[in-house]
Design brief:
Metallo-beta-lactamase, Chain A; seven-stranded mixed β-sheet; six-stranded mixed β-sheet; 9 helices; globular
């Protein structure tokens, strides 16, 4: 009888021990498998969060313009903009004078050698003139030019050891940075469209094809996206352009260079807080 009781007590003790061990997580296979899944999920989520935060961060730096926001920088007729993405730095247009371009870059702590790609909007000297002097500082770049450019430009680019890429139709320049392709002005001109986390950023050199037409092209290329910002030279457009851009639901405007004082003031009046004063020294973070 005593033996049977002892056996029964031993069995109950073992059952209780198993339950206790399971509660305390001593069966490590189950404990660590659950924990490792939890940690792994957190790590994946963290990586996703970091990726999503930085994926579409864009910085636009005005380095060449005839309008100025910083008296320590030089102004000259023309246009130049540095576009910083998480992947590359792109120079859009080089102004007309490389000495002004490089002076402003140095003052703003932008190293020409860190530029990965150069995009030239059109053939006019106030957008192309600074390219040769820039290539003397950094020839390890790809230069994206409209395919209508004369061969003399290609020869000049190649003479410094840089590459050129002819652009005719809409094409990808970099990750979420696109060219509209050549649009007829005259002259033929390409603009940039940046697919940012806040919407499309439309960057124009002179907008010879018409700023409204360029915005329509952007919307055609990305029909599901809103146009968050249009920046650059608007080429002295008529007053009706201000209202047409509002009809196209353009969120913000930053006209400069060849846009004209009167049209800038009308944009300021109509867009109010969504008008961005643009000129050399302006830094826009998106």
């Amino acid at each position: 009888m005593t033996y049977k009781i002892l056996v029964l007590v031993a069995i109950l003790f073992l059952i209780g021990g198993v339950i206790l061990f399971q509660k305390e997580g001593i069966f490590k296979r189950e404990y660590f498998s659950e924990k490792s899944i939890e940690v792994e999920d957190k790590e994946i989520k963290l990586k996703e969060d970091i990726g999503n935060k930085g994926a579409h961060e864009i910085i636009l730096v005005s380095i060449y313009d005839n309008y100025s926001l910083n008296p320590k920088l030089k102004t000259a007729w023309g246009f130049g903009l540095v576009i910083k993405t998480p992947f590359e730095e792109i120079l859009f247009d080089t102004g007309g004078d490389s000495s002004v371009l490089l002076f402003n870059m140095k003052k703003m702590s932008i190293d020409p050698k860190l530029i990965d790609k150069v995009v030239i909007s059109h053939i006019h000297g106030d957008h192309l003139g600074g390219l040769e002097g820039f290539l003397k500082e950094n020839s390890k770049v790809k230069v994206y030019i409209p395919s209508s450019f004369p061969d003399s430009v290609r020869k000049m680019i190649k003479s410094y050891g840089a590459e050129f890429v002819d652009v005719s139709g809409p094409s990808e320049i970099s990750k979420f940075v696109f060219s509209t392709g050549e649009m007829y002005g005259p002259p033929e001109e390409q603009s940039l469209i940046i697919n940012s986390r806040k919407g499309l950023l439309v960057i124009t050199g002179c907008a010879h094809p018409g700023i409204v037409n360029i915005v329509k092209k952007a919307k055609e290329m990305f029909p599901q996206k809103n146009v968050y910002l249009v920046l650059g030279g608007f080429h002295h457009p008529p007053e009706e352009v201000v209202y047409k851009l509002k009809e196209l639901e353009v969120g913000k405007v930053a006209p400069s260079h060849c846009s004209g004082d009167e049209i800038r003031e009308l944009f300021r009046k109509e867009y109010k807080e969504n008008f961005i004063e643009n000129g050399v020294g302006k830094v826009i973070k998106i």
